[in-house]
Amino acid sequence: MERLRRHHRPDDRADLQHHRSRPVPPRDRSHRRPPDARRAAARLRFRHSRTRTAPHGSHGITTTTDGTGDQVPWTDLAYDSKVYTPNSGHYVPQYRQLGGRVYLHLRLSRADNAPWTNGETLLTLPPHIRPHRTQGMVGQITGSGISDSLTVRWEVQTDGALRVYDQRGFTGWIGLDAGYFVN
Fold this sequence. Notes:
Layout: H1 2-7, H2 17-21, H3 35-45, E1 75-76, E2 84-86, E3 94-98, E4 101-110, E5 120-124, E6 135-141, E7 151-156, E8 161-165, E9 173-181
Antiparallel strand pairs: 1-3, 2-4, 3-4, 4-9, 5-8, 6-7, 6-9, 7-8
C-alpha cells in the first residue's frame, strides 16, 4: 500500500520514470477489414452524394419527375380572384408535390391596392398537401412603402391556411417560390 501511495505522489517523478521507458506494444489489427473492403463500404455509404443524374443529389432533390420520368405538373390553387390578382399568367398560385415535399409559387397583388395586413390569409391549401406542423417560408415583396428588406415571412398552417406576416403595411405585390414538408 505504501508503494502505491508513493507511486502516485505528484512531487515524486523519479518513481514514474519506468512508465516512460516501457515500449508500447504494437496494436493487433487483424480484426480490421482489408483496405479494399473499407473503400467498398465507403462507396456504398456515400453513394447518394456522387449521383451523376441529379445535380442536387446530396440534398435529396433529384428532378421534377415522379420517379417514372414523367414531369410532375403544377396544379392551380383556389384563391379569391376578387381580392387578389396575379402579376401574370405565370404567377397564379400553384403547387407541385414531389414525395413528402410540396413546392408553391405565386405572385399576387391586392385588387383594391389596399395595404397588406399582418397575418392575412391568402388561400387555403387542399387537405392532401397540408403539413402536420406549421411550416415557415421566406418570400419576396415589392411596392410602395418599402425602404428596407424585400423579404416577407410566410406560414403554412396545419389547417391549410397560407398566411403572410409583415407589419409594414405596404402596397404592391408579394411572391412566394418555396417548399415545405408535409410529413
